[in-house]
Sequence to fold (190 residues):
Amino acid sequence: MKISTNNPATNFAKKALKALTMIAMVLCAVSLAACSDDDDDEGGASKNPNHPGTNKVLALGQVYTLLGGGQEYYGNEYNDDATTFDVYLVSDGLQIELEMHQANGSETLAAGTYTVKKGDYSKGFISDAYVDRYGHGLEEIYVDIADGTTVTISVSGETYTIEIDGKLADGTDIVGNYTGKLDWFTYTPE
Fold:
């Protein structure tokens, strides 16, 4: 049986089917575009809306590009239950220093989430943390990083990702991340 293309009912059905197909395609495209993956956004893994992006940190009300970092191994400097590391992140005009404590057994910085808690030398805590602003004709200032600020470290080979999310002692945000190598130093007392 042959269907006539001149039949008005058939032409209407074809147009209606075409329109419904087009509407379904538009709805699919809109719903896919509305989906997002937080890992792919420029703001990094932090849920903080002020996150400035990869290898950047917002501190003292300004965004700084982080250029590199280092880790200095101190061993069991404060107690026998934790190994101490100083971690430095530097930019042109800002340095972040974190005195971190992890479980014994490694001479390299371990992955995990560390929390700033001044004077606590236990594993999983950062006993001292501050930012140092310098250069560019600005007065040099040190500002403590407030208790409760979290620093999350992940490691892949020699590449470290360090996420910082919290507050400075002056109440302003410190948020950002660094991904790259950390120069390695061992502290030797004189």
User: Anything to note?
Assistant: The CA atoms of residues 104 and 185 lie 17 Å apart. The two ends are 100 Å apart (CA to CA). The first helix runs from residue 8 to 34.
